[in-house]
């Protein structure tokens, strides 16, 4: 059984991040600060000998990935592989909405009005379920739909025949996805009601048995 070393980076800051808008499958460009986030991550990872690189198929993730790969001094002949499996949580009709309004609506049935309060009381997966229930179209992903998609993405990485035990793999991810991974695999050691910083680095070990996390939001766990 092989174990892969994942370096998981949150994409650089976008305009929707600046405007406090939910940004799942929707997309907005990197700001100047977001471009700088990607360059800084690239400098920190310049010596990591990546054997493969993955991201979601959103431009904010792809632009961040390509900036990091361009700065890498040891990874050669790597083509970025994109997959919809690595997209952020889908927020349905709340895509592009003010985050505070969306989470107030999601928490109305349980008497809570902020994302942090809902997550602290019910956990990350239940928070997804509450948003789907609040979505008038019920298009937002619930926890089951979300994990089926994301876990298929990790299987895609593991099944890559070019990757061997111990190889380093770059994955450009999203804020809520990192929170979700921390909640599920962080063994209760990671605070999950705030998003990690744009351009922040996490280190994870991926195998058929699951994921272990050794660094999150630039901090060793």
Give an overview in words:
- The chain has helices at residues 15-18, 32-44, 59-71, 99-107, 115-122, 124-134, 143-158, 175-185; strands spanning 4-10, 50-55, 81-82, 168-173, 201-207, 210-216, 219-220.
- It has a seven-stranded mixed β-sheet.
- The model has no long low-confidence stretch (mean pLDDT 97).
- It is globular, with a radius of gyration of 17 Å.
- It has 221 residues and is of the alpha/beta class.
- The chain has a single domain (4-220), classed as 3-Layer(aba) Sandwich (Rossmann fold).
- The chain is built from eight helices and seven strands.
Feature tags:
about 220 residues, alpha/beta, Rossmann fold, about 15% strand, globular
């Amino acid at each position: 059984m092989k174990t892969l070393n994942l370096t998981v980076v949150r994409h650089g800051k976008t305009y929707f991040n600046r405007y406090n808008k939910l940004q799942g499958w929707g997309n907005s460009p990197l700001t100047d600060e977001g471009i700088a986030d990607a360059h800084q991550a690239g400098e920190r990872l310049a010596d990591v000998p990546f054997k493969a690189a993955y991201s979601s198929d959103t431009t904010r993730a792809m632009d961040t990935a390509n900036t990091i790969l361009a700065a890498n001094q040891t990874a050669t002949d790597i083509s970025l592989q994109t997959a919809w499996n690595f997209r952020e949580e889908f927020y349905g009709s709340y895509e592009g909405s003010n985050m505070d309004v969306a989470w107030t609506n999601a928490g109305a049935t349980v008497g809570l009005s902020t994302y942090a309060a809902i997550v602290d009381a019910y956990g990350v997966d239940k928070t997804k379920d509450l948003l789907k229930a609040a979505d008038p179209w019920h298009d937002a992903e619930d926890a089951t739909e979300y994990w089926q998609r994301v876990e298929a993405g990790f299987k895609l990485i593991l099944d890559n025949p070019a990757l061997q035990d111990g190889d380093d793999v770059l994955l450009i991810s999203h804020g809520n996805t990192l929170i979700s991974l921390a909640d599920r695999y962080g063994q209760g050691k990671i605070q999950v009601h705030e998003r990690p910083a744009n351009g922040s680095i996490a280190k994870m070990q991926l195998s058929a048995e699951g994921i272990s996390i050794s660094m999150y939001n630039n901090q060793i766990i």
